[in-house]
Amino acid sequence: MKIYITGSVGSGKTTLAKRLAAELGLLHFETDNFVWKRAPGGDIRNSEKQRNAHLAEALMQPDWIVEGVHIDWTDAAIDQADWIIFLDLPLKERKRRIIKRFFKQIAGVESANYEPKFKMLQKMFTWNRYYEDKMKPVFLKKFQAYPEKAIISKSSEAASRILFEKIKSS
Known about the structure:
Layout: E1 2-7, H1 13-24, E2 27-30, H2 32-35, E3 36-37, E4 44-45, H3 48-59, E5 64-67, H4 75-80, E6 83-87, H5 91-106, H6 118-143, E7 150-153, H7 156-169
Parallel strand pairs: 1-5, 1-6, 2-5, 6-7
Antiparallel strand pairs: 3-4
């Protein structure tokens, strides 16, 4: 089974992907980890060639979940996915989650792939707004081509429930 999950910062993509990967026994890939080479002193951006090679390698696996906010260069994952989940949580809820996550990371309760600083919090709000205004309409248009496999949901719980219903009926 192949599942593609997308949504804005704070929509619950990673949490849902990890849970589904565990429940369904699937490999889980974050598109951020294709873009960035994780390093102790700070992340280093991969070249487009490296990024695309990482995605291609993940997509060669027989079963997977690919999740992230990236667009266009991830179209192969959208095309190959059996199911597409678009987490379309309200902007206000995503803002609340971003703040909650930030304080959990500052307290050391939640880990992050970046250093949780105020500047990063500001970036997340900027990315969230950009996603809402620019990226969301593009994703929604892309998913019109896949009505039989696209799940657009206001919560990860509802998305998960719909996914399992579709799996049972297929």
